[in-house]
Amino acid sequence: MQPTELLAALDALGHPRALVVGDLILDRYTWGNAERISQEAPVLLLRADRRESRLGGAANVCQMLRGLEAEVTVAGVVGSDDSGRELREMLSQTGVRCDMALVDMSRPTTVKERFIGRAANKHPHQILRVDSEVREPLSSELEAEFVRRLLSEIDRYDVVVISDYAKGVCTPKLLRQVIDAARAAGLPVVVDPVRTDDYSRYRGATTMTPNRNEAECASGVKINRPEDAFEAFCPRLPWRWRHNWSRRWQSVWRTSPAGWKSSTSARCRSGVMTCGRICWPSANPRPPSACRPKLWCDMWRRAVPEGSGSCSPTAASTCCTSAT
Q1: Which long-range CB contacts under 8 A does 180-188 form with residues at least 24 apart?
Q2: What's the pLDDT at 9?
Q3: Global confidence as pTM
């Protein structure tokens, strides 16, 4: 994509209404000179001269969306503490609506504090990170209230973004109900997943954005090149197709119904396929017929059957065999 095309695409976005669901994190930084070794223990002594707070996790996603001039509402959980109040205030100053950010009296706000040391005011280097967090899932009462609020307002938005950092907010039950409600309302669901080998919790999402490490964990494939990523997504396609199409199409992570496993590798966990597939629009060239029924189309999770010019449901797949 050329820079002019990218700018045109950004201009065409307008001001979408985005609902961001996920784990809110406050990032703190302490900067200073590491001057000497402490007399109390063999550790660096950091003379702090600057402290900074930044939005992290799902809160950082909100900040970036605001930078794209989206109208953003955040749905998450903070603790009843100074860090939670600071995080909400920072979000409000950014222009993010925070009335769906609930307070959990039983847990602290997730805080990641980093200590950055310099040598003679040069060469800053992180020397320590301290995390204050609770990773336990939300209580059933708070989860129910959270889901009730989300479902009551979800049709007001244009897109749902899920930012999962495994801090307890994105429970399987909450994810299932939010994704299903978004699909029923015709909304795309974008997921930034946690590092796991089981993506069944995100089944039904429109697209996912794993980084390389997360993609390797989910697919079981070592990814060093774009061709490796395409191999993880559609291993049955001939190499020449993988090579050509990987340069023309963006890979979209999908999960398939329970009971199907890959016939070519052990990439499927708990009986649910976690390897991704590509949505091939009917107006564009087809991949080899051997793989057509496996290619999931659009957010409705329908497959492209043999000889069809549109998406329709199918229960079979030539790329997968039934799990035993």
Answers
A1: 180/204, 181/150, 181/151, 181/154, 182/154, 183/299, 183/300, 185/154, 185/155, 187/154, 187/155, 187/157, 187/158, 187/159, 187/160, 188/159, 188/160, 188/299
A2: 82
A3: 0.71
